[in-house]
Amino acid sequence: MQLTIVIPTYNEAENLPKMISALFQLPIPDLKIIVVDDNSPDQTGLIADEYTDHFPGRISVIHRAGKLGLGSAYIQGFQKAMEDGAEAVGQMDADFSHSPDKVVPMLSALESCDVVLGSRYIQGGGVDKKWPVWRKGLSSFGNIYARMILNLPIRDTTGGFRIWRSQTLRNMPLERVRSNGYAFQVEMTYVAHCSGFRFKEVPIYFEDRRWGDSKMSFQIQLEAAIRVWQLLWEYRDLKEVS
């Protein structure tokens, strides 16, 4: 399957060139990348533009007016990937918390399901060993919280390393997805589940970013906690059909 990976960026000038290089070294024919940049002050968007000359036809850049949010960046990138003929659409961070080496086994796993999730919480997966106990506990609790409330059949509901079949995305009501923080990952998982799609989880090790500053904040975490309950109401029609 022709794979296009969508990478949202905001101040990732240190990471993006390294990530592009790592991805294009993978043994995946016709791999393409879409960078969705939210007008990064560190010129990440301009750096991405330079790479379109180095890899003609393999990199596209979407420039947005400002910091408009993770969810809308992914939706916009997904839509462009599908318009350009992608058969599979990946999503991952630019900061190497998601290892490019896992793209190949995840793409292989897509042959027998509708969406593959890079999972920190199945056997063989894990989170950064340097994380303090409180942070590991918070991450684990967030997953259990969403999984129990939404009755999701997967272990990692909040991870952002995924590969979708394009046909799966086309058959999901993306126009209804409105979460714009990390709750976006939970919402997409829930919509896919309510739509009857098949999941497969591949173990990954989630490493803290190597360069730059984290985008996680208390406000993002609070939004995610509240959105979980809102999703039950907003997608009750899908749930009733499934």
Number of domains: 1
- Main sheet attributes: strand count, strand direction, barrel closure: 7 strands, mixed
The CATH homologous superfamily is named: Spore Coat Polysaccharide Biosynthesis Protein SpsA, Chain A
- N-to-C SSE series? EHEHEHEHEEHEHHEEHH
**CATH fold-level topology:** Spore Coat Polysaccharide Biosynthesis Protein SpsA, Chain A
Q: What is the share of helical residues?
A: 40-55%
The Rg value, from CA coordinates, equals 17 Å
Q: Kindly, what is the distance between the CA atoms of the first and last residues, rounded to a whole number of angstroms? A: 28 Å
| Total strands | 9
Adjacency order of strands in the biggest sheet: 3-2-1-4-7-5-8
Detail the poorly predicted runs: none
Mean pLDDT: 91
Number of helices: 9
Described by the principal axes of the CA atoms, the overall outline is globular
Going by CATH, the architecture would be Alpha-Beta Complex
Description:
By secondary structure, the protein is of the alpha/beta class. It has one domain: Spore Coat Polysaccharide Biosynthesis Protein SpsA, Chain A (Alpha-Beta Complex). It is built from 9 helices and 9 strands. The strands form 2 sheets. A 7-stranded mixed sheet has the order 3-2-1-4-7-5-8, with helices on both faces. A two-stranded parallel sheet has the order 6-9. Helix 1 links the parallel strand 1 and strand 2 (32-37). Helix 5 packs parallel to helix 8 and helix 7 (183-194) runs parallel beside helix 8. The two termini are 28 Å apart.
List keywords for this structure.
single chain, 242 residues, Spore Coat Polysaccharide Biosynthesis Protein SpsA, Chain A, seven-stranded mixed sheet, two-stranded parallel ribbon, 9 helices, globular
